[in-house]
Amino acid sequence: MRLSPARLWAAALALALAGQAGCSGHSGGARLVVVGSTSVQPFIELLAEEYSATASLTIDVQGGGSSAGIQAVRAGAADLGMSSRPLAPGEAGLVAVPIARDALALVVHPSNPVRDLDREQIRALFSGAVPDWSKVGGTDRRVTLIIREEGSGTRSAFEDLIMQGVRNSPRALVQDSNGSVRETVAQDPAAIGYISLGLVNQRVRPLRVDGVEPRPETVRDGTYPLSRAFLLVYRPPLSPPAQAFLDFVLSPEGQALLASEGLLPVAPAREVGRR
Question: Who's near 199: CB < 8 A, 6+ residues apart?
């Protein structure tokens, strides 16, 4: 049987961690392993840094994609999995905890004159049905499509919300992280890609979708159409160190940190200062 990239990644991670004393919270050690979505990863890294400043716990945060994180949890190679997609029917026995809401942003090079696309136009671009920017209000330039790899929660969300069963163009360039998508778009005036709204910076420009700006307010009120939940996934029973970290993520302080990075909290947040 041929293993999927996510299963291969989880298997490699399990081998790499095998034999390390206390590598997992299940062993009661002082190390917590968190694996998965590259969309969620930078936010968990921020939370881990903040939490570790006051707790005697080493938190090892790794990417690999949502499916890889879920597989790592199922295999016992990670205490917590980061996911930007819901659990699939075949992933029973795991618990998924929403920690924040995010939105997908369609991003282009800052020089691109296009400011707004509807979902039908986005689907036509990424399927290859519309290969040129001039067909959607841009210059006469062939579109460079940037997508995520299979197993990515970001790609899964994009395909559910936009593609709706229509296949991506075979011309699309595949990148393995939100950061790689952002940097590729930033270097190509003809490129378009999709990343987590919380990871948009000045190197790229987000587009309006159906006339709505991607902002926390429009995600919160439901007018921006491309939103999703960020999840932490575990296999019961949750170890005490993992439970303590999850409690911090959902605490007012943890939620305030996520809100300060552009995500929408799922629990009440309070103003906090960075250490």
Answer: 39, 42, 178, 179, 182
Q: Which residue has the tokens 């205490």?
A: 79
5-101+230-265 CATH: 3.40.190.10
Do residues 39 and 102 lie in contact, with contact meaning Cβ atoms separated by under 8 Å?
Answer: yes
With b for 16 or more beta-carbon neighbours within 10 A and e for fewer, the 210-227 pattern comes to: eeeebbbebbeeeebbbb
In this structure, are residues 212 and 222 in contact, taking their beta carbons and an 8 Å threshold?
no
Give the separation between CA 139 and CA 173, rounded to whole angstroms. 21
Q: Which two tokens stand for residue 237?
A: 């029973």
Q: What's the number of CA atoms in the CB half-sphere (13 Å) around residue 205?
A: 15
93 CB-contact burial (10 Å; exposed 0-12 / middle 13-18 / buried 19+): exposed
* Confidence (pTM): 0.72
- Fold of the 102-227 domain: D-Maltodextrin-Binding Protein; domain 2 (3.40.190)
Boundaries of every domain in the chain: 5-101+230-265, 102-227
Model pLDDT for residues 131-149, shown as the tens digit of each residue: 999 999 999 999 999 999 9
CA distance 91 to 83: 12
Report pLDDT digits (tens) over 147-205.
999 988 899 899 999 999 999 999 999 999 999 999 999 999 999 999 999 889 999 99
List, in order, residues 6 or more apart from 172 with CB less than 8 Å away.
Answer: 126, 145, 146, 147
